[in-house]
Amino acid sequence: MIQFLLNQELRSEHALDPNLTVLNYLREHVGKSGTKEGCASGDCGACTVVVGELQTDDDGREHIRYRSLNSCLTFVSSLHGKQLISVEDLKHKGELHSVQKAMVECHGSQCGFCTPGFVMSLFALQKNSDAPDQAKAHEALAGNLCRCTGYRPILAAAEQSCCAKQPDQFDAREAETIARLKAIAPTSIGELNSGDKRCLVPLTVADLADLYDAYPQARLLAGGTDLALEVTQFHRTLPVMIYVGNVAEMKRIEHFEDRIEIGAATTLSDCYEALNAEYPDFGELLHRFASLQIRNQGTLGGNIGNASPIGDSPPLLIALGAQIVLCKGETRRTLALEDYFIDYRVTARQESEFIEKIIVPRATAEQRFRAYKVSKRLDDDISAVCAAFNLRIENGVITDARVAFGGMAAIPKRAAQCEAVLLGQPFNNAVVERACTALGEDFTPLSDFRASKEYRLLSAQNLLRKYFIELQTPHIETRVTAYV
């Protein structure tokens, strides 16, 4: 059984189909049809809902953290122990919520189909910021598409509702909601079981290891932003899933003198602060990774584990010399991330083995790390080419070189020939040009609808040139902002 709050109503579910999304649960099982399906792939934001989780700050203060999610990509099992808020829950005692009033007064709705998603994104923005600036408003709404009203009145609604916000019913009930969430906090393995399909929800790494050993055919579910597409887009059935999002040990970020250890189930939103503080280019790329709704769900371990050749984080992590800790039963092994990827969607992971954590080295003064993403849109788009350069330069000489790319091969991959040309050489234009030529020996990219093979190779070479120019003249940096 799993338990969660539907606004303030306790829901206990056991026999539901584990392949059921939150979107369809709301619409088909509880009659809340305000949440809309636009794309069923997390691109449009019409299905946005907000999920509340109990969080304890470093000072011991308990509060509820509200986050916007795409309900079309969220399986019901991930709600275990949380609070689900949909657009119907905002109206209180016959009065519209302040974010709804702002949308009305600022004329932010026309056909109305996308409006519930915008309202829920604004609600999350209001809850998470006292006086959001324009950049935060753009970030909060970047995952919501409107095809008829335009965005100026919606941004005006964001300013009106967030800059002079008033306490609402959720603030008034916070203590009560905290108590109710504590009362339903999971204490044992949860499960949804419809007879022929099941999803198990472990709470510890040990439980996860035991379950995965018992069900090696199970699909591991973290954020679900990739896995859920198999259900929503390809109409496949997932007979057995194991949801890892309630394993607290795999959601920790720990800082050590020489490294940062990030649990594999840590969301990309939670990774941001740690990675941005150490490597600003990593932070910039996370902003462009996907919409806020996706970053609130997607995990760093999931982005690695799905072994996509165009996943944005692996090239950066490879260039930084990151490692992963793989767990199977009581056995753990540490593997360089670059050795995890073997071939297209083929990895070094053994049966019943899972990624427990990612180890990222701390930055040093000698490092020159930069990352670049080439895509057709600035926000919410997949890379055509993703490049990461990490050179150690001492007294003008390159003493270490790590160059990695995504989108250039069947796997995220280091550019060995390029690195060999750079290593031990002065960092000058002539050496860089030879290294650019060597990229043609490292990669034979494919053509697809994102870019041709010729474009990809030329882009990779030009990004290396861009890296060289920016290090010579840092005042003209335009990092992570390239387009096809």
From TrEMBL:
UniProt keyword terms in alphabetical order: FAD, Flavoprotein, Iron, Metal-binding, Oxidoreductase
GO molecular function, one term: iron ion binding
SUPFAM superfamilies, per the entry: 2Fe-2S ferredoxin-like, CO dehydrogenase flavoprotein C-terminal domain-like, CO dehydrogenase ISP C-domain like, FAD-binding/transporter-associated domain-like
Pfam families recorded: CO_deh_flav_C, FAD_binding_5, Fer2, Fer2_2
Residue ranges annotated for the 2Fe-2S ferredoxin-type domain, each copy included: 1-90
Top-level lineage group: Bacteria
Name this protein carries in UniProt: FAD-binding molybdopterin dehydrogenase
Gene source species: Pseudomonas fluorescens
Lineage: Bacteria, Pseudomonadati, Pseudomonadota, Gammaproteobacteria, Pseudomonadales
